[in-house]
Design a protein that fits this description.
By secondary structure, this protein is of the alpha/beta class. Among the domains are: 2-249, no CATH class; 453-570, Rossmann fold. The protein is built from 26 helices and 16 strands. A six-stranded parallel sheet has the order 10-9-8-11-12-13, covered by helices on one side. The protein has a five-stranded mixed sheet with strand order 4-5-3-6-7, with helices on both faces. It has a three-stranded antiparallel sheet with strand order 15-14-16. Helix 11 packs across helix 13 (295-304). 42% of the residues are buried.
Length: 641
């Protein structure tokens, strides 16, 4: 089944999104059942190569056999670099080829991109031990490098071209290749998302230059590693969805267009389906007249495409040191799930440390992701600061400087609305963002802290019929507004601390009777923010519903209680390019502070919502619902095991 779709004035047919229409034999990878433990299949080879390297003396050591582990690690790192680069460049927009975004379905389907690295590693280890000419390789042999180039340009490219055309025959396409073409808008790792049977053939093809150099005794560490790197580089580049090959390269050497494809060239194969079959060298498309006539036009158009200007900008920041891996620019599998601590990330502490050093040295806001909603272009930028730094008073000036620079930069770009996410708004830090409006009174960009929507969501999360709640946590702008709205509804508010009671009394002038100071923990509805202690949480009665009004959720200590999400809502299906979770929130759920900026732009509101100002809560809530955002509902019934 095919569906017509037209992004960026390109027309193509989209295959049905599943493994394959009629999965053929050898579709699944043999180690699929192992899940995340699949790397154990390399353990015997790694142990064996390490033992031989350590046990043997210098003359008997096979360094090339031992270094195969380094090749495997390099391939993983190389692929990850391309993933991060592609997501960064497509988020910025310059050079982007197709506008249609990634979705969770594609991320999940392409999550096994490292399977082909494991498969190749098994072949490399086996060949290194048992094939003649593969042991104790020298570092360099010039003849081997030249032979590798010739064998790739000849047999490999030629055979791949015809095999690829065969894969587009209905019989093979429906059973195998349709899985790869489920990704219309590609990302680098799309290049290796194929059924196992296809990879068997691809590995055989790519083994031709390696086997040829082995038989002629010209294989070397450089020719082997460089060829594998070349394959990965060209595969990733061809699927990265942004054009990066400069035009002057083809002007300087015109025949190059027959021997090197571009990302836009291969992108046409995924949109037009029956053109541009070549592997990396388009020469066979020219010879057999299967080149797409719009290849040159798309290349030039994509290359000229400038950086995109968003309508709405969400300004967030890093949370914990390992949060860098959970960004859309980080590990795709982690970014596509709510942020939870993973034990294996502790093993990466050297990389984590280096990332912290780099963010400190770089010291500038960076683009994280982009979405499209209705006619709005949305972007997220991140401040290179962590939660801990926001609680250090001596860091306030540096953080405020970064936020102010981002606002000025967004103003110059023509951004309509900037919403302050997480701790980028705070009373002590910047008076809930009001300090920037005070310093720059003529800003055209609207600054939104999202407090009115956060209040509205909190109020609508409280179960109907509630007559009393316990309010506990740091008394922010949102907390005061929630308390005021509850008192207007006649709901009694209980506080546990005298200082909180006094602060609320001042803001609830005329409604103090609805406020109670008590030491009772018997309430079943707790409105909580930052500052809730573990001891207080443990004293809550069984079945208590914790409703956060702050940006960060409380630590879940009780299995016999219920924890709602921080103020957030489900996004409409029309929101495009959603392939990462926002911090700890579920898929396709967005925080109130982020949604508020979108609604502000959609409604065309001209006022700022920051400082101690707050928009009309009911008006903001109704507008948000009208634009398709839906409240989050959690189950308050314990399941029995």
């Amino acid at each position: 089944m095919y569906i017509s779709y037209t992004p960026s004035k390109l027309h193509y047919k989209e295959t049905k999104k599943n493994m394959a229409s009629v999965p053929g034999i050898l579709t699944e990878w043999p180690w699929k059942a192992l899940g995340s433990l699949k790397y154990v299949i390399l353990a015997p080879w790694i142990i064996h190569s390490t033992w031989l390297f350590v046990a043997n003396d210098a003359k008997e050591r096979d360094v090339s056999y031992f270094l195969l582990l380094g090749v495997v690690l390099w391939r993983i790192i190389h692929n990850q670099i391309w993933i991060s680069l592609s997501r960064y460049r497509t988020a910025k927009g310059n050079g982007r080829i197709l506008d249609r975004g990634l979705e969770f379905e594609q991320v999940d389907r392409e999550n096994n991109w490292d399977d082909q690295i494991l498969f190749n590693a098994l072949l490399f280890y086996t060949g290194s031990r048992y094939l003649p000419g593969a042991q104790k390789l020298p570092l360099w042999r010039a003849h081997g490098v030249l032979l590798t180039i010739v064998l790739h340009a000849g047999p490999v490219e030629f055979l791949y071209y015809w095999f690829h055309r065969a894969l587009h025959h209905h019989y093979l396409y429906s059973r195998y290749h349709s899985h790869h073409h489920s990704s219309i808008v590609t990302q680098p790792i799309t290049s290796v998302i194929h059924p196992f049977a296809e990879h068997v053939v691809y590995s055989a093809l790519f083994f031709i230059p390696i086997l040829g150099t082995m038989l002629t005794r010209t294989l070397s560490v450089v020719s082997f590693t460089a060829y594998i790197t070349y394959i990965d580089f060209m595969n990733n580049m061809g699927h990265c969805n942004f054009e990066l090959i400069p035009n002057w390269l083809f002007s300087l050497f015109p025949p190059l267009k027959y021997f090197m494809y571009t990302p836009s060239y291969h992108s046409l194969h995924h949109t037009q389906f029956r053109t541009n079959y070549s592997l990396f060298m388009p020469i066979y498309d020219y010879i057999y007249e299967t080149i797409d006539k719009s290849s040159d036009t798309l290349y030039k158009t994509s290359l000229k495409r400038e950086e995109e200007t968003p309508d709405v900008l969400h300004l967030t920041h890093l949370t914990t040191p390992e949060s860098i891996y959970h960004l859309p620019l980080g590990f795709a599998s982690l970014a596509s799930q709510p942020h939870t601590s993973k034990w294996y990330l502790w093993l990466m502490w050297p990389v984590t440390l280096w990332s912290m050093i780099l963010t400190w040295i770089y010291g500038r806001t960076f683009v994280v992701e982009r979405q499209r909603f209705d006619n709005l272009i949305l972007q997220t930028w991140a401040i290179p600061k962590y939660n801990l730094q926001y609680y250090l008073q001596w860091q306030n000036e540096a953080i405020n400087s970064l936020i102010e620079e981002a606002i000025i930069q967004a103003e110059e770009k023509g951004v309509k609305v900037l919403c302050l996410g997480l701790l980028n708004q705070g009373e002590e830090l910047n008076r809930y963002g009001g300090v920037y409006v005070h310093r720059h009174p003529h800003l055209k960009i609207r600054i939104v802290d999202g407090s009115s929507l956060a209040v509205a969501i909190t109020l609508n999360t409280i179960p109907k019929g509630t007559t009393q709640v316990l309010l506990r946590g740091n008394l922010t702008k949102v907390a005061h507004a929630v308390a005021f709205a509850l008192c207007q509804k006649g709901i009694q508010i209980t506080t546990l601390h005298h200082d909180e009671y006094l602060k609320l009394t001042k803001s609830l002038s005329g409604m103090e009777s609805s406020l109670v100071l008590a030491k009772s923990y018997a309430h079943k509805i707790w409105l909580v923010g930052d500052g809730l202690s573990e001891e207080e949480q443990l004293r809550a009665p069984k079945g208590t519903l914790f409703v956060p009004f702050s940006q960060f959720p409380p630590k879940k200590l009780r299995k016999d209680c219920f924890y709602h999400y921080t103020p957030a809502m489900k996004t409409p299906p029309s929101l495009e390019n959603v392939h990462a979770c926002e911090n700890w929130l579920p898929r396709r759920v967005m925080s109130a502070w982020r949604i508020a900026g979108i609604v502000h732009a959609l409604e065309g509101w001209k006022e700022h919502e920051c400082g101690y100002n707050m928009s009309n809560i009911d008006k903001v809530w109704q507008a948000t619902l009208q634009h398709g955002f839906q409240p989050l509902i959690i189950s308050t019934t314990h399941t029995k095991n």
